[in-house]
Specification:
alpha+beta
Length: 331
């Protein structure tokens, strides 16, 4: 428990340093917190980076420049050992909020508030950040700028909220037994899903999910509410539109208190099949880098937040969503 609290304190200090670093000084701020063999994973177009300078120049400084007075608004914050290899990780999920005053990744600025939904993971080793992974919902920012690079989604198009219980930022130590309950439950759900061929039959879902569960999907899919609507608005289109789905495992699986989750790199090897996201049928192999964050309520799961690197998924099929966004913006 002491290691968990120390790890959370280190990451919060790192966040504060990023928040106050001026342009040109971000790399120095990052270097203070990272280990010698630091490795960064990010959604496309960030992908994999191995130095503070590259992470600062490619990820953080463009975001801070585009989004004036950027804030990190955390909805969920927890830490714990990785079930896979017992390494220590800290998870943060929420939104970056700023004034969208400069273009970002080719997305035209609006001069208005913009939210950048994010989920971020940090592996702690020897009192330093040894590894990071960052998902940001870039398609959501396109939607906020009035650009629709994909066909109409099947779920609700919203800025996903934080937990209904407003208790997701776990600054204090949690009961280990409650953390274990959460981890056991999400792994049971995962094993059921993989064993069912990623189909999520209703009877199987109800073993681990509350009937009024909420599934906060990424922009491009959208959010759904209740088991029946989840199956209608996400799981059905997922099963119908995709083919040859192979679960590839996770990099991280952990939990603290009532919260837990995972990410993979990639989680799924997959083919477009009959046409997912309203896109044309394709036999070209591709993959999904996916994040799932969960809230447990009593003995079942109540809420789920999902991030998918759709830009990478479509890039492997020859579709450049960022270029498509630029083309739409020029019209």
């Amino acid at each position: 428990m002491t290691d968990i609290q120390k790890s959370k304190a280190l990451v919060l200090e790192y966040f504060a340093a990023l928040q106050t670093a001026t342009v040109g000084k971000t790399a120095t701020a990052i270097e203070h917190f990272i280990g010698a063999d630091y490795h960064f994973r990010g959604v496309h177009p960030f992908n994999e980076l191995d130095s503070a300078t590259r992470v600062a120049e490619i990820v953080w400084e463009p975001l801070h420049t585009a989004m004036a007075q950027l804030q990190r608004r955390q909805d969920i914050f927890f830490a714990g050992p990785n079930l896979i290899d017992d390494t220590m990780w800290v998870t943060s999920m929420g939104k970056f909020m700023g004034l969208f005053d400069e273009d970002w990744l080719g997305i035209p600025s609006t001069g208005k508030i913009a939210f950048v939904p994010y989920c971020e993971f940090h592996r702690i080793q020897g009192g330093k950040i040894a590894e990071s992974a960052l998902w940001v919902d870039i398609v959501s920012v396109m939607h906020q700028a009035g650009i629709r690079p994909l066909p109409m989604q099947t779920g609700a198009d919203i800025i996903n909220p934080g937990p209904e219980t407003a208790d997701g930022v776990l600054l204090n130590a949690q009961d280990d037994s409650e953390s274990q309950k959460t981890l056991n439950l999400i792994m049971e759900m995962c094993n059921d899903l993989v064993g069912d061929g990623m189909e999520s039959a209703g009877g199987m879902l109800r073993k681990t999910w509350h009937e009024d569960m909420t599934w906060f999907g990424p922009a491009g899919i959208g959010a759904t509410y209740t088991v029946d609507r989840y199956q209608q608005q996400h799981q059905g289109p997922f099963a119908d539109g995709l083919d040859s789905v192979v679960f590839n495992g996770h990099v991280l699986e952990h939990a603290e208190g009532n919260y837990g989750g995972w990410f993979g790199w990639p989680n799924l090897k997959i083919k477009q099949g009959g046409g997912f996201l309203g896109l044309p049928e394709s036999a070209t192999p591709t993959e999904m880098r996916v994040v799932d964050i969960y809230r447990r309520a009593d003995d079942k799961l109540a809420e789920n937040w999902i991030f998918i690197d759709f830009l990478h998924y479509m890039k492997l099929m020859g579709v450049d969503v960022l270029e498509r966004c630029r083309t739409i913006a020029r019209r």
